[in-house]
Specification:
Elements lengths: L8 H10 L4 E7 L3 E8 L2 E9 L4 E7 L10 H6 L4 E5 L2 H16 L8
Antiparallel strand pairs: 1-2, 2-3, 3-4, 4-5
Length: 113
């Protein structure tokens, strides 16, 4: 059985930094989720991380398509753009997050430069 204990945002930030995100800032945090601004491959991404009842999930959205006043977990959850990933633990989740970031980096229309 996988460990489903709650991680604090500092642990999540450290795990995301370990997968190769160059810069990482906590933009919003509450008891249910954390929203990070990450820079990967010269592009900025909003990375929502949350733990549901049975699994961890993340939504990755290019930062340039969401106005900064809306950088919070509730808005990012419902914005139509972005890709979700789901996993049983935070280590597995971070592996999926980097795969999504690499896919986005290949798409020219999502470049934030």
């Amino acid at each position: 059985m996988k460990d489903h204990s709650r991680y604090d945002s500092a642990t999540i930030k450290r795990k995301l930094a370990e997968i190769g995100i160059e810069k990482l800032y906590i933009m919003y945090e509450d008891v249910d989720c954390a929203l990070f601004l990450g820079i990967h491959g010269y592009q900025q991404f909003l990375i929502l991380v949350s733990k549901g009842k049975f699994s961890w999930y993340s939504k990755i959205v290019p930062a340039n398509i969401v106005l900064e006043p809306y950088w919070n977990c509730e808005h990012i959850t419902y914005v139509p753009e972005g890709l979700y990933v789901f996993a049983e633990d935070i280590e597995e989740l971070t592996k999926y997050i980097i795969k999504v970031l690499e896919k986005y980096s290949k798409l020219k229309n999502y470049n934030s430069t």
